[in-house]
Amino acid sequence: MEKWMTDWQDAYKEICTLIEKGDTNHVWIELNKLEQKSAKVLDLWSVMDEKVALIKEHLAHEPSVNGYQSMGTVYLEQNQLKRAVLSLEQEQAAGVNEEWRRLFLAYAHLMNGSNNQTIEQFMYLIQTAKDESVRHFSFAGLGCYYTVNHQVDRAAELFEQAKLLTPTSDVVYNLGVCYYLIGAMDVSAEHFEQYTMHVQQDGEALCFHGMVRARLDQFEHAKQLWERALEVYTTSEDMIRLALMSEWYGFFEIAIKCYQKVIALGEEETFAMHGLAWNLALNDQLRLAWPIFDRLLKEHPHDPHVRRSLQHLGKLAEEKNSMN
After folding, report:
1. Can you say whether residue 183 is alpha, beta or left, with left for phi > 0 and alpha for psi between -120 and 50 degrees?
2. What's the average model confidence in pLDDT over 56-72?
3. Cα–Cα–Cα angle for 274, 275, 281, nearest 5°?
4. Contacts made by residues 32-37, CB under 8 angstroms, sequence distance 24+
5. Tally of CA atoms within 13 A in the half-sphere of 258 that contains its CB
6. Gene3D superfamilies from the entry (predicted)?
7. What's the half-sphere exposure (Cβ side, CA atoms, 13 Å) at 149?
8. Helix H segments across the chain?
9. Does the chain have fewer CB atoms within 10 Å around its N or its C terminus?
């Protein structure tokens, strides 16, 4: 993760340098590469979030006369996937409980990466299950499978089927992700708006929603969403990711707050101090930025990233003075 953040920041600064030189042809080439790199990481984050969210909602489903609990479901909840698969395959049930057993088994195969078994179990339930909740989670689970395997159009169709049965918040969220990855930003925004209105403390969803609004050039809306996400975030990884996105769109104040919170956590101190100084400088707060850069130079005299930032800021200062 740290290497990706460093590479991303280096690529971003290289683009800034190309813009200063007026080399627009190479700017678009490098910008396309950067966007592809960000999309790959975003795809991975969204897939992981979808898988965890779907499983958590299912496991948290209140037991009823149609519920199913066993040693296999316990193993699944504990993330002991191989044991969960073996146990659920050997267990016996009847009627609706058999549908729930198969559903848990399908999710165990999904989380364990068993592709053929995942499709087989979900498709069987979609075609035969009498319990509407079982069919809902089967459509959602199969949608998650196709998202993991980069068939997002198919995934969106399945999530839409799940939504028709029961419009749960996680399905609405997953549809927002799918439509973002497809490029249907207006539709994605509608789903994220619906989700974040009902689930207001989901930092990941707020961050994602902000990205969609930014892609729609609704920058003030995006800024408000990212400010809300920052209030919710508790990990340095989330805050640094938000800082990088905020910096990219020129929301330097948000990036500054992100890095300040990371420093307060006592994590990624050198990276966060550099990010803080850089964004303070970009936000015309040079008097606050220079002492931090000075400290970084003393503590890390051979850090190429710090020196590169200072060189870039020096050029900007020279250009600004020459214009006055």
Report:
1. left
2. 58
3. 90
4. 34/8, 37/4, 37/7, 37/8, 37/11
5. 32
6. Tetratricopeptide repeat domain
7. 17
8. 2-21, 24-59, 71-77, 81-90, 96-112, 115-128, 132-148, 152-165, 169-182, 185-198, 203-215, 219-232, 236-248, 252-265, 269-282, 286-299, 304-323
9. C
| DSSP letters for 283-319 | TT-HHHHHHHHHHHHHH-TT-HHHHHHHHHHHHHHHH
User: What span, in angstroms and rounded, lies between the C-alpha atoms of 231 and 193?
Assistant: 18
- For the segment 93-126, what is each residue's pLDDT rounded down to a tens digit? 888 889 999 999 999 999 888 889 999 999 999 9
CA 31 to chain centre: 20
Helix (H, G, I), strand (E, B) or coil at 112: helix
pTM here is 0.73
CA proximity to 164, closest of 205, 136, 128: 136
pLDDT digit string, tens, across residues 258-304: 999 999 998 888 889 999 999 998 898 988 988 998 888 888 877 77
Closest CA to 115 of 137, 94, 140, 141: 141
Contact predicate 239/267, CB 8 Å? no
CA 210-211-213 angle, to 5 degrees, is 65
Residue located via tokens 């627009």: 24
CA dist 133 and 61 (Å) reads 10
Dist. CA 147–CA 151, nearest whole Å: 6
By CB atoms closer than 10 A (0-12, 13-18, 19+), residue 260 is middle
